[in-house]
Amino acid sequence: MCLAVPMLVVSLDGDMAVCELDNVRREASVAMIENPQVGDFVLIHAGFAIEKLDQEEAEENLVYFRDMIARGELVL
User: Fold this and answer.
1) What is the mean pLDDT of residues 56-64?
2) Torsion of Cα atoms, 37 then 48 then 60 then 66, to 10°
3) Which of 21, 37, 57, 76 has the fewest CB atoms inside 10 Å of its own CB, making it the most exposed?
4) b/e per residue, 48-71, with b = 16+ CB within 10 A?
């Protein structure tokens, strides 16, 4: 199964961003996102930001993922 994970953009350098979730940072391309900004929540899949999310939507998705992990239904 492939997942896209919500992450927070913490820095930008051209079309590349450093994104963070739970103190884990990953580099991802933001070339497919319109006007990315530090502080945006984005869905990261296979090293690419594929969609912007508002903060509420990102947090709802993270609650869902964390609940699945806690129940053993999802292993990352």
Assistant:
1) 92
2) -130
3) 76
4) ebeebbeeeebeebbeebeeeeee
Q: What tens digit of pLDDT does each residue of 27-48 get?
A: 999 999 999 999 999 999 999 9
**Where are the domains positioned within the chain?**
5-70
Calpha distance 12→76 (Å, rounded): 26
Written as six digits, the tokens of 24 are 């884990």
User: Which pTM was predicted?
Assistant: 0.87
Q: Write out the two tokens for 32.
A: 């497919």
- Amino acid in the structure at residue 73: E
| Residue 48 DSSP label | E
CATH of domain 5-70: 2.30.30.140
Tokens 């530090």 locate to: 38
